[in-house]
Every structure is written in structure tokens, then in C-alpha cells.
Design a protein that fits this description.
The complex is a heterodimer. Chain A is an alpha+beta fold. Chain A has five helices and ten strands, in the order H-H-H-E-E-E-E-E-E-E-E-E-E-H-H. In chain A, strands 3-2-1-5-8 form a five-stranded mixed beta sheet. A five-stranded mixed beta sheet of chain A has the order 4-10-9-6-7. In chain A, helix 1 packs antiparallel against helix 2. The longest helix of chain A is centred in the first third of the chain and has 34 residues. By secondary structure, chain B is mainly beta. In chain B, strand 3 and strand 4 form a beta hairpin. The model of chain B has no long low-confidence stretch (mean pLDDT 90). Classes of the chains: A alpha+beta, B mainly beta.
Chain lengths: 308, 225
């Protein structure tokens, strides 16, 4: 065997230095230039937390990606078969692996994954669920003593919203006050939907007969896009609406006016509850063999009086 | 059979299968309802008069028992079409002939008139801003364009009426309600409209069948600049 160690350059040292420089520059550029624009923005605390989490993930992922690319590029340039002086791969002991490299790879990837697990868990706890649906009994709640309750009701194919602190009126508009902690209660009257208020950083499944709670605190005014993010039928793609975060004074005026305008219809709605029985009306939901439906109050959301 | 013959047969069969698959796929994804053009029915800027009817059973076609909307073309002919081409930023005077019976709404919010001029609808000539679906004849259907906030509840006719229309297009001789609203079309775009009364009988939550098929209980406002 020929001893080539004296003639081989220090490949890994070269690659490491190259990686360190490129990854450092890429991370710095990404964090300062792209970071502030990463979705979902900074309209709420959960959106801001989500943005920070995404930035952390990308700042960690970029060096990994760059390491792979640098190794590939270095190998193509330095160890290509047409390069003068490069021996044909022949196998043998040197081709079986390098324990140092293997250990470094396993240790670094394990550290990254476990580190991100801890980071994600801490972010979830500190962010009071980070805007995600926490089910009917939230483990993590914000510190606010008087959050504004807003109920989100999914139905094929539209979200509607109830405001229990304003007489329980229901509307197709999602209007929220700024600088306020919002306690969303998400449910459904039929199939499973998913309430995804993109700029709010809030996303919670809307399941029939289940109260799914999600928190966030608004910190900027602006427009919000709400989409259903669970394939829920033929018009799923049309199940969206636009909401707004406005000043607390403007919200108070809007809510009071809407409460007044819809008072007659609100009286026909069921008392505010965290879930409703999502059966059907005359179409009778499931099978319809008899064409007979007594319209019992338990079957119809909002029914107070059985139809004659 | 020669090798060339077998190859030709295999190729022909392959093309036939591919053609059939393409026919099925495109037949499924392309609208089966014609588009009715209301952009040139009146002088530019003038209101569009749109007249539609809701019937309990279409009475013809592949699904004669399905509930359906029909539209009156500018030429005055009733056709089964739920894609309507309308000019942008134009007032639409919508008349709905409601021939179907009603029931309580799953969600009474759809009994609230919204997005119309004045926030009301004319029900047989009488203005209303909402309708209690638990009383009277209930609500048969709604005409709703969610993207522009338009909701028009269509009060049902008595299910015991002796002259319920069973085959479309229905004529005013049958029991019906006349609902009139005006609204303004938004900027150019495609806006889906639908019914919020789950009237797809026999389907999950009543929202399958005609509720999920173009040409029956849903369609598009094809708004052009």
C-alpha cells in the first residue's frame, strides 16, 4: 500500500472553513434581510412567536443544507475521476467508513433534533399554545385576566362568529380589537373544518360537538385572511373570509352597532354554548328514507320552537 | 398475428384507455352547466335584471329529483345554468321565484338578510330584514355569495299547498314566493354562490348531491370588467 497521507491536503479542514464562512454569511443575511418578512408576520403575539420559531428553524437548517452542498461540490471538484492524480476508488478498509465522521454526523444531527424538541416545547408553553387549538381544556393559557371570547362556528361552507360578551350575536365578519387577548372557541355544526387565521398565527380544527380553544393577543391593526384548512366538501376552496384587527374604540363601536342591528335574529339563536348539536334540518343529515323530520329542538342549531 | 400487428393492437388499446381516462377526467373537472351572459343584455352601466327560480325537483336530466336553481336568459328562456356572466360594479336587480317548501335553518344566521341594498329583501312585496325559520313555512333555500357577504333567505311555500310545482321550469300558476333584492357586483373575478340550507336529501349532513354539483344548488358569478 502506498502512503499518501503526506501528499493529501486536509480536505475536511478546507470544507469546514468554507462551510463556516458560507453558513455564517447565509445565516446573517437570512436573519436580517428575510427574517422580518417570514410568515405569518407580527400581527399577534402568536404570529410573532411563529415567525421567530420559523426563523430559528431556518437558521439551523441553512448550515445543514450548506454543509451538504459544500461537501457535494467539493467532492465533484476534488475527487472527480477525470482530475489528474485522483485514484480510482478501489474499496478496502478506507471505503468502509470513517468512525469519526459517522460519530460527528450522528452526534450533530441528534443534538439538533433534541435541541429543537426542547426549543419547540418551550416555545409552545411560553406562547400559551402558540395560537394552536388546545382542545376543550387548554393546558397553557395566557396571563390576561379578561380575554375577549370569540366563538368560531364552522359549517359547510362558511365560518361564522359569535361574540358572547355582546349579547351572543352571530356574524359572518371577524372583527377583533387591537392590544387584546383573544380566546377563540372553535367548533363545527357539521363536518370537520379547520379555522386558519393566517396573519393571526391561529390555527385550530373545528370539530362537531367539540370546543377547541386557541389563544392569541393582537398587537397590530390590519387585515386578516381566514381559510378553512381541512378538506370539507365541494366548496371547501370557497370557504374563506377576510377579517380585521381594529382599534379597541372602533371595535366597541362596531360590536355595539352589530349587536343592535342583529338583535331580532340573535333572539332566535340558541343561548351561547361552547358546542351545539350539529344535526341537520329538513334534509336530515344522514339517511332520508322517510321524508319525515319533526324538527326537534335538539336537532337544529338555533331551534327554540319546533316547526309546525 | 405478426409482431407488428400485436404492437399495433397494443398501441391502439393503450391510446383507447388513455383517451377514455382523459375523457372521464376532463368530464369531471369541467363545468357541466352553461354560462349565461348578462353583460350585453342592457346598455353599459345600466342595472342588470336577473331572474332565477328555485325548484324542489328539476324533473329532468340525470337527477330529476334533485333540487335546483334555474335562470331566465336575457332572451326570456328558463335554462338550468348556475354560472352567470355579469358586468363589474353594476347594480343587479335580482328576482327569485321560490317554488320549494321550507324548513328550519340549521343555523338561523342565514335567516338574516345581508349584503343587499338597504339590508332588506322584498318578500312578496313586503320588506324584511330577517326571517324566523322556526315559524311559518320555514326557509327553503338561501341565495348566498359568501365573498361579497350577500345572503338572501328564500322563504318556503306551504308544503301542504295543492299546487306544488314538481317539474322545472315552474310557472307562476304554482305555489311560490317572489323575493326581490338589489346588490352591486364587485370587481372582476369569479365568485362562488351557494345555498346554505342543506337540501341535498340523503347525503351526509344534506350537503352532497345537488349541493355539491354545478348546475343545481351552486355556481359562480363570473364578473367581468
Amino acid at each position: 500500500m502506498t502512503d499518501t497521507s503526506t501528499r493529501e491536503p486536509r480536505h475536511f479542514a478546507r470544507m469546514f472553513v468554507l462551510w463556516l464562512v458560507v453558513a455564517g454569511v447565509a445565516d446573517a443575511l437570512f436573519y436580517t434581510l428575510a427574517g422580518p418578512h417570514v410568515p405569518p408576520g407580527t400581527m399577534t403575539t402568536s404570529a410573532k412567536d411563529n415567525q421567530f420559531d420559523f426563523n430559528v428553524l431556518l437558521v439551523i437548517a441553512l448550515p445543514v443544507l450548506i454543509a451538504v452542498w459544500i461537501y457535494m461540490g467539493y467532492a465533484i471538484v476534488m475527487w472527480r475521476s477525470t482530475r489528474k492524480g485522483v485514484a480510482e476508488p478501489v474499496g478496502g478498509a478506507v471505503a468502509r467508513g470513517n468512525k469519526g465522521v459517522q460519530f460527528a454526523w450522528i452526534a450533530s444531527t441528534s443534538t439538533i433534533v433534541m435541541g429543537l424538541f426542547v426549543f419547540g416545547t418551550v416555545a409552545l408553553i411560553n406562547g400559551a399554545g402558540s395560537g394552536g387549538g388546545e382542545g376543550p381544556n387548554p393546558v397553557w393559557s395566557p396571563n390576561s385576566k379578561a380575554p375577549l371570547q370569540v366563538q368560531v362556528i364552522g359549517q359547510q361552507w362558511k365560518f361564522t362568529y359569535r361574540y358572547p360578551s355582546f349579547g351572543g350575536f352571530e356574524t359572518t365578519q371577524l372583527i377583533l380589537p387591537n392590544n387584546t387577548t383573544i380566546e377563540f372557541h372553535v367548533t363545527s355544526l357539521d363536518v370537520t373544518h379547520d379555522f386558519w387565521a393566517y396573519q393571526l398565527g391561529v390555527k385550530a380544527d373545528a370539530n362537531p360537538q367539540l370546543d377547541n380553544v386557541a389563544y392569541t393577543t393582537t398587537r397590530e391593526t390590519g387585515s386578516v385572511t381566514v381559510r378553512c384548512d381541512e378538506l370539507c366538501g365541494i366548496w371547501h376552496g370557497a370557504m374563506y373570509n377576510y377579517g380585521r384587527v381594529i382599534s379597541p374604540a372602533a371595535f366597541e363601536a362596531w360590536a355595539t352597532a352589530t349587536q343592535r342591528a342583529s338583535v331580532a335574529n340573535t333572539k332566535l339563536l340558541p343561548p351561547y354554548a361552547l358546542t351545539y348539536v350539529p344535526d341537520a334540518n329538513g334534509a336530515d343529515g344522514g339517511l332520508y328514507p322517510t321524508n319525515v323530520d319533526p324538527y326537534s329542538a335538539s336537532e337544529v342549531y338555533g331551534a327554540k320552537v319546533a316547526a309546525s | 398475428m405478426s409482431l407488428r400487428g400485436r404492437l399495433a393492437t397494443a398501441l391502439a388499446l393503450f391510446l383507447a384507455v388513455v383517451g377514455l381516462a382523459l375523457w372521464v377526467v376532463f368530464g369531471f373537472i369541467t363545468p357541466t352547466t352553461p354560462t349565461t351572459d348578462f353583460t350585453s343584455a342592457q346598455p353599459a352601466g345600466s342595472p342588470v335584471n336577473l331572474t332565477i327560480q328555485a325548484v324542489g325537483a328539476i324533473g329532468f336530466g340525470p337527477h330529476p329529483t334533485w333540487v335546483s336553481y334555474l335562470v331566465k336568459t336575457p332572451a326570456g328562456k328558463w335554462i338550468q345554468s348556475t354560472i352567470w356572466k355579469l358586468p363589474a360594479h353594476t347594480k343587479v336587480n335580482l328576482t327569485i321565484m321560490q317554488y320549494d317548501s321550507g324548513s328550519p335553518l340549521r343555523n338561523q344566521i342565514w335567516g338574516q338578510v345581508a349584503g343587499t341594498q338597504g339590508g332588506t329583501e322584498l318578500l312578496n312585496g313586503k320588506p324584511i330584514s330577517f326571517y324566523n325559520s322556526y315559524g311559518g313555512n320555514g326557509v327553503g333555500h338561501t341565495f348566498a355569495v359568501p365573498a361579497i357577504g350577500l345572503v338572501v333567505p328564500l322563504v318556503g311555500v306551504p308544503s301542504s299547498a295543492p299546487n306544488i310545482c314538481g317539474t322545472a321550469p315552474c310557472t307562476p300558476n304554482y305555489a311560490h314566493n317572489v323575493i326581490k333584492v338589489s346588490f352591486t357586483t364587485p370587481s372582476a373575478g369569479s365568485y362562488s354562490w351557494q345555498c346554505f340550507v342543506p337540501c341535498g336529501l340523503g347525503t351526509l349532513y344534506g350537503n352532497g348531491g345537488p349541493m355539491g354539483a354545478l348546475g343545481y344548488m351552486g355556481g359562480f358569478l363570473d364578473v367581468t370588467a
